[in-house]
Amino acid sequence: MKKVFSILLTAVMMVAFSTAASAQENSEQKNKKQRMSREQMAEMQAKHIARQLALDDATSQKFTETFSAYQKEVWALRPQGKQHGKKKADMTDAEVEKSIQDQFDHSQKILTLRQDYYKKYSKFLTPKQIQRVYELEKQSMNRLSKRGKGNAAGRPNAPGRPNAGRPNGPGKGKHNGKFPKKPTTQEQKK
User: Fold this and answer.
1) Per-residue model confidence as pLDDT tens digits over 106-120
2) Are 16 and 141 in contact (CB under 8 A)?
3) What's the rounded Cα separation, in Å, for the pair 38 and 58?
């Protein structure tokens, strides 16, 4: 059960990653060059994973192609938006029930897709390598998720914010963004 939950959680995070990656705007990159497409991003991630696994050229090529195809299929399964723009509190019981069933269906499709690609990976990777692929994929999604949340949460140095990068810009008072460490119970006794 834990394994299924872990796989399901990873699949949901992949969907979140693809959504966050497509929604994230980076004004500095926009001025310098065009934004990377999803396909380019998936290929770059696949090549990074292949380097981490120290795969030979032939295996690396197979992995990159397979991983990129997997990502495209995950994106195709992406949920098509909220329930007609309604807030959860405004939904009827029938609408909530349908939403929950849709989530189950989506999760099942992701799980089935992951199982299919596990079989494909098994043709040229060992189980330990496949596990490492999942770990690296999750780390990558977490990094991208944190980047997206950081700017959206109003980090002080977020591009486009007034006073961004100034010593006493938003969110930086006397502490310059750092707060004193709370003493531990042992330090309090001394």
Assistant:
1) 999 999 999 999 999
2) yes
3) 23
pLDDT in tens, 67-87: 999 999 998 887 655 545 567
Mean pLDDT estimate for the chain: 75
Total-model pTM: 0.56
